[in-house]
Predict the structure.
Amino acid sequence: MTCLFAPSLAFRHYNPDELVLGKRMEDHLRFAACYWHTFCWNGADMFGVGSFDRPWQQPGEAIELAKRKADVAFEFFHKLNVPYYCFHDVDVSPEGASLKEYLNNFAQMVDVLAAKQQQSGVKLLWGTANCFTNPRYGAGAATNPDPEVFSWAATQVVTAMNATHQLGGENYVLWGGREGYETLLNTDLRQEREQIGRFMQMVVEHKHKIGFRGTLLIEPKPQEPTKHQYDYDVATVYGFLKQFGLEKEIKVNIEANHATLAGHSFHHEIASAIALGIFGSVDANRGDAQLGWDTDQFPNSVEENALVMYEIIKAGGFTTGGLNFDAKVRRQSTDKYDLFYGHIGAMDTMALALKVAARMIEDGELDKRVAKRYSGWNSELGQQILKGQLSLAEIAKYAEQHQLAPQHQSGHQELLENLVNHYLFDK
């Protein structure tokens, strides 16, 4: 019997130079590999020690191991042919035992990364600061009850923003890993909201001060590690941005697994961000609806991601953002090639999803049906309502005078689901 699939390190669907809707596939997708899951995680979990044998994770001088890690990382980026990468500050540099050591180590490693980028042509999609792992951040960073912890976090963010700017990064991400609470019994919600609001305002001020032309991004997540996080989902982040006058300054980096944890579909979060005008970038992965934590698996559903790419491409595509694989191999995946299998499969998944999305856009049937469904709002009555030319009482008077008796029109959900399957599976 012939095997229909043999393990391969070749792409089946991703071709960076293939034109899709008149644009190179690489330019549509803007793939990035992440530093943390790929090169920092050692395979440990809550119930077991590290299961991976990574030479750069062995005992030794921290700064030399960081340089060895950078060698491996850029070799991986080159072999995988991804145009971008992403990092947290302490992914690429030893944290050290003091603030002075942190700053000195990071400065050294930024020079190393700059040289690697120059040599390889790989660019930085985004940088960020890890303000959640160290025990000092147990009660948060910007929302911490201690202003000295707040100040340490500010130092990390300033330093990571400056590094991102120096390295030509196209975005800077802010993920509030512990910006939330475990119990309301010891939490002042108003105080913490004011703190993080001011922190974000200062981040925006610093962006303009240093001349960083990239995009600032908040990454929503509902919980984990805290019980409840303040950046719960896209809609919550938008409300926060509006409150502090930041909706024109900060966008969102949407992670698929975080949407799952918030009880939303990935499609919903992408569409919501686009509708609210704050869509920025994507962490492409997947979660497990049967589990209540962040599994960070590689994306493998063309069905799910075709709808995501449809929304993104229909809205004009990425500008500074891209598809970062915030995903990790499983703890049992200890073969050195598993890192490649995971990324190659994910890149093929997103490439095929892009092709399906292109078919949906070229055919235009979904758009036509949505436009027809809302066509009544193009009428004189609809336009007067939307333009604020009628009060609530005037609309009620109109309905009475014209004896309105509207009839429900079918939403044709089943037909549209069949149509999407046609794009997915018909050749």
